[in-house]
């Protein structure tokens, strides 16, 4: 009859026998972390000493050899942080920009609060208080800190360093409800007028304009594309001869620390590649840009520097701030045009079409972050109530 299987981390009956030169050997069966049962033995001068030596040896066997780490619950949090960053690189699932953002959030938001703590000392109450205190300063910073702290502690749980993730039990973050801002038609006209004034050369603010800012704005207003996606448009991505003219959104410009800006061959997410029909004003802006481009390669960027290198989103934002300051208009960012497009399409044709144009797979994202709520209820309700309750 086969011996019953031992639970992992336990040993069977200890036996002893006298071996050469008066020594005593104690041995037992021990089931290791990998499920295999092995013979463990120790020797000493007496049976009692041999059993004691064997038990010490057994207590020192690691149940967590599979984690390939020397971290324990008594390791400091900085050690876990470095281990987590190495694991991110091993998985290699994140884009370089997201990997860089995670490290920055961990080092600047989380590490200062946990640098002197061991993993054993990081409990639910401490994590809950930390996130709440950060949320008082900034909801966005608290949200970013929550993401990276949860990921790092989840790795410690998966590798059996700690038994549970305290971040799984903290209170939910609550954000004050806000309505996404979108430009009205008069505000769009004011922005266009300000850009024309700046590009005419009448303003002495900054370097001489090259006309691209106005064209970039028209393309954003005609496509819903993000600023990085617009700056990544190539000759081969536009077809202004078709009816209607079309634009393929298939890349974005990324900037990383210590590297020049370059084109990534997919938008923010790989699933958001799409081809959109262009309204007349956006198609005209594309034609104007094509007419002055020197580079004829299909891969040439539609919007670029004088040297043909990519424009950076931050550079365009800086130009737009300068123009808006001249126009005395506050709060206009490149993303405001994306919200403006979403709101206009939603009001005319509904949320599903607006989400499709923006490249969203879930309309909830479009509703929560891109649609300016129209407070005006359909006036047909007045006629309906008149019919129901008109005074005779």
Automatic annotation (TrEMBL):
<dbReference type="InterPro" id="IPR002104">
    <property type="entry name" value="Integrase_catalytic"/>
</dbReference>
<keyword id="KW-0229">DNA integration</keyword>
<dbReference type="GO" id="GO:0003677">
    <property type="term" value="F:DNA binding"/>
</dbReference>
<dbReference type="InterPro" id="IPR011010">
    <property type="entry name" value="DNA_brk_join_enz"/>
</dbReference>
<dbReference type="GO" id="GO:0015074">
    <property type="term" value="P:DNA integration"/>
</dbReference>
<feature type="domain" description="Core-binding (CB)">
    <location>
        <begin position="75"/>
        <end position="157"/>
    </location>
</feature>
<dbReference type="GO" id="GO:0006310">
    <property type="term" value="P:DNA recombination"/>
</dbReference>
<dbReference type="InterPro" id="IPR004107">
    <property type="entry name" value="Integrase_SAM-like_N"/>
</dbReference>
<dbReference type="InterPro" id="IPR050090">
    <property type="entry name" value="Tyrosine_recombinase_XerCD"/>
</dbReference>
<dbReference type="InterPro" id="IPR013762">
    <property type="entry name" value="Integrase-like_cat_sf"/>
</dbReference>
<dbReference type="Pfam" id="PF14659">
    <property type="entry name" value="Phage_int_SAM_3"/>
</dbReference>
<protein>
    <submittedName>
        <fullName>Site-specific recombinase XerD</fullName>
    </submittedName>
</protein>
<comment type="similarity">
    <text>Belongs to the 'phage' integrase family.</text>
</comment>
<feature type="domain" description="Tyr recombinase">
    <location>
        <begin position="178"/>
        <end position="390"/>
    </location>
</feature>
<keyword id="KW-0238">DNA-binding</keyword>
<dbReference type="InterPro" id="IPR010998">
    <property type="entry name" value="Integrase_recombinase_N"/>
</dbReference>
<dbReference type="InterPro" id="IPR044068">
    <property type="entry name" value="CB"/>
</dbReference>
<keyword id="KW-0233">DNA recombination</keyword>
<dbReference type="Pfam" id="PF00589">
    <property type="entry name" value="Phage_integrase"/>
</dbReference>
């Amino acid at each position: 009859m086969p011996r019953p299987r031992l639970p992992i981390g336990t040993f069977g009956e200890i036996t002893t026998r006298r071996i050469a030169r008066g020594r005593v050997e104690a041995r037992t069966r021990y089931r290791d972390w990998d499920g295999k049962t092995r013979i463990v033995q120790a020797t000493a001068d007496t049976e009692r000493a041999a059993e004691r030596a064997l038990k010490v040896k057994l207590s020192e066997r690691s149940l967590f050899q599979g984690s390939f780490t020397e971290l324990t619950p008594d390791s400091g949090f900085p050690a876990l942080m470095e281990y987590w960053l190495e694991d991110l690189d091993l998985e290699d699932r994140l884009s370089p920009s997201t990997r860089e953002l995670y490290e920055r959030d961990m080092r600047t938001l989380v590490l200062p609060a946990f640098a002197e703590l061991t993993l054993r000392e990081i409990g639910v109450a401490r994590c809950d208080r930390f996130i709440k205190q950060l949320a008082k300063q900034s909801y966005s910073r608290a949200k970013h800190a929550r993401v990276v702290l949860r990921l790092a502690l989840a790795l410690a749980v998966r590798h059996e360093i700690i038994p549970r993730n305290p971040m799984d039990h903290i209170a939910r973050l609550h954000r004050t409800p806000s309505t996404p801002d979108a430009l009205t038609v008069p505000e769009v006209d004011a922005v266009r007028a300000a850009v024309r004034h700046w590009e005419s050369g009448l303003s002495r603010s900054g370097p001489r304009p090259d006309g691209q800012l106005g064209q970039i704005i028209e393309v954003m207003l005609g496509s819903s594309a993000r600023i990085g996606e617009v700056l990544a448009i190539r000759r081969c991505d536009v077809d202004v001869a078709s009816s209607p003219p079309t634009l393929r959104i298939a890349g974005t410009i990324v900037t990383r620390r210590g590297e020049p800006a370059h084109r990534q061959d997919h938008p923010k997410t790989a699933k958001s590649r799409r081809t959109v029909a262009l309204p007349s004003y956006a198609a005209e802006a594309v034609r104007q840009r094509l007419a002055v481009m020197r580079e004829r390669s299909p891969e040439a960027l539609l919007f670029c520097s004088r040297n043909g290198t990519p424009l950076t989103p931050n550079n365009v934002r800086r130009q737009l701030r300068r123009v808006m300051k001249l126009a005395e208009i506050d709060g206009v960012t490149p993303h405001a045009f994306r919200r403006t497009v979403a709101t206009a399409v939603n009001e005319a044709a509904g949320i599903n079409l607006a989400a499709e144009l923006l490249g969203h797979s879930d309309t909830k994202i479009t509703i929560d972050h891109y649609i300016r709520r129209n407070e005006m209820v359909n006036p047909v309700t007045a006629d309906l109530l008149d019919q129901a309750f008109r005074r005779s």
